[in-house]
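Ticket #4471: complex job returned nothing on first submit. Input attached below:
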Amino acid sequence: MELIDGNKIASDIAAELKAEVATFTGRRPCIALVRVGDDAASISYVKKKENMAAEIGMTSRLVLPPVSITQDELCALVDGLNADAGVDGILVQSPLPKPIDEVAVFRRIAAHKDVDGFHPLNLGKLAQEDPTGFVACTPAGIMELLRRTGVSLAGKHVVVLGRSLIVGKPAALLAVQRNQWANATVTICHSQTPDLASFTRQADVLIAAIGKAEFVTADMVKPGAVIIDVGVSRVPDATKKTGTRLTGDVHFPTVSKICSKITPMPGGVGPMTVAMLMKNTVKAYRQNNHV
Amino acid sequence: MELIDGNKIASDIAAELKAEVATFTGRRPCIALVRVGDDAASISYVKKKENMAAEIGMTSRLVLPPVSITQDELCALVDGLNADAGVDGILVQSPLPKPIDEVAVFRRIAAHKDVDGFHPLNLGKLAQEDPTGFVACTPAGIMELLRRTGVSLAGKHVVVLGRSLIVGKPAALLAVQRNQWANATVTICHSQTPDLASFTRQADVLIAAIGKAEFVTADMVKPGAVIIDVGVSRVPDATKKTGTRLTGDVHFPTVSKICSKITPMPGGVGPMTVAMLMKNTVKAYRQNNHV
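Support reply: We reran it on our side without changes. The output follows.
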């Protein structure tokens, strides 16, 4: 069994981006990071993005509106960043405070600066295999993990567990694309699928994104399968000082014994997300400035 | 075995649209039908659309540029229709003459008038389950055929044979949506899938859109399955005066003996396409005029 090392692959991508950015004449690519309020997890996520941008030699612009900002004010703020020629990509950190319609704010981001890949135009371009779009960071990261560990999906059966807009569906659309690393047969199953295990057991590559801690057990996996664990859950653990630990959608201790490759949690898909955000921002810089 | 009568269902939809349009005050919904050149099949398709619009009480505007029209001129023509407040939906009949980049012309149509549902924004809205988008007419028609023959996809395994942008992918995305008629587990397989029959035999509902005449034979079908045949091919037939006949992707004589329901060809999916185009145009009229 081989561990798929997301930290290593993400840092390879960062190094490649750093070398690429170093060749740019003129200003550096710039990502605007919008964080509303002082949610502890959001502060930490945005800090990671800021740090990786700096490591790569990109600029980041931290925008910190107060938690009291209204929907209209936040939309106006996004409009300003959309119009700002010095900003290549815009990231609005989720979650936004309750009264704000998060989806409406995400959709306000101009498609050509939507480096999170949440805009319907970008999802449509993914479905149409139009390379000018931005692919959501988690599914894009999954494809990089597979490619860079030598797993071509061609002729394989990929089973995606979960049909979310930002992971399950785009991952399925990527896997079925007509290109040498994709070309898979794809099944999307989800919480409403009867006898889920009968599907997951068929998977040559299983992408678990159902959001249930340690849901995928060894009896649900075909021996030799490649396992991508997208889940992040906190579960009780009396052996830890905090009384809890993080875990994925896969029961790692048993599944790792029978699969051929698996992403650990943490250190699998997670680190890829930030790397792909930066990759999308460099792409936006190139496209928006015709570099 | 029950035949799914596309002609009957399409004419039910036309009657419903006629009743709906009769309630509108002010101008009628209007579809612009753009046909370049004098391709015989295109003339016949556009005529069908014109006739159904008239039957429903809608207006159609026939636009007939010469076969010599350039790409730029055709784009300018589309721009004019996009800007024309009297036009609700725009249909550019495929195929366009060779030198013209058909995809570029289709994408030129404003998303809010794209009643064919080919614009990436509309495909993205479908993937995001945003009801303001326009769903491509063939997959939308398939869902209507199923709904109106009482086939809910919830808990079913839908296998889509073919991954085209205008049938296979949108049909898969529709079947997996979170609504009472969808909620299926969906597999997309295609020409590059090894052992295709092992997938098609799992289908509770099989949507055949692979573009190969009579490709699906009885041994590829689970007894009792529902079969939707999207294919249209012309094959040699010495018993016909013309020496040919039209057929679908399904070998009807054998498959119809073991399935529970099946669409005939012709008279199945085909007639639905025009009906759904009109339904989309009425929706565009409502949305663009806030009716």
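The domain at 137-270 of chain B is CATH 3.40.50.720 (Rossmann fold). Closing as resolved unless it happens again.
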